[in-house]
Amino acid sequence: MRAAIFLNGAPDPPDLLRRVAGRADLVVAADGGARYALDAGVVPDLVVGDMDSLGEARARKLEERGTLLERHPIRKGKMDGHLAVLAARDRGATAADLLCAAGGRYSALFAVPHIMLASERIGLQTTLVAGWGQAFVLEAGFRMVDGNPRDSVSVFPLTGPATGVTLEGFDYPLEDARLEIGDTLGFHNELVGRMGRVSVGLGALLVIHETREIPLTKRPGRMDGRATMS
After folding, report:
1. pTM: predicted TM-score of the whole model, two decimal places
2. What pLDDT band is residue 212 in, cutting at 50, 70 and 90?
């Protein structure tokens, strides 16, 4: 079961939002992310959060249109986006696309990889989908990157050293490598063909797949598998 989860970051192109939401079995919005969904013509099945960004008037209108609201207190231990991911998993999702996630507040932007890591650890494979490309977090397993020749792909260790890093199908392949925090070895590799494989033995990797260049003046703010985790 696939979910589309709208975060409250910054809006992505409406056609992209409609296309990704259209292939989902469940559409979830994290509080104010529901505004981006509605602006793109998408009505969420579920909105999760304290509703401070969405506002009570919009929340009531969504309820009238059949949207379920999962309310949480303002003072809580997790971001609304994290709660939305948990809600999607509780409803049976095994894969999720995160939308409107790459932008907005810098603090929230840096939190997104941790939300993806938390998702990975509960068995929900998430992919950040944006106008510039995609990103995902991989821990103890492998995942395929599907794109076009010369697409830029970068890999960064997320939680500490990542060992057993292997890149196949890339201009600069790696085999059983060790990536350290503070190193930039994994920056800007390129696909040789249409598909590459990223593997990691221990540790977590943030994988950023850029499918098109973004001008500096406009920069914002499957085949897959998993090894058994210990």
Report:
1. 0.86
2. low
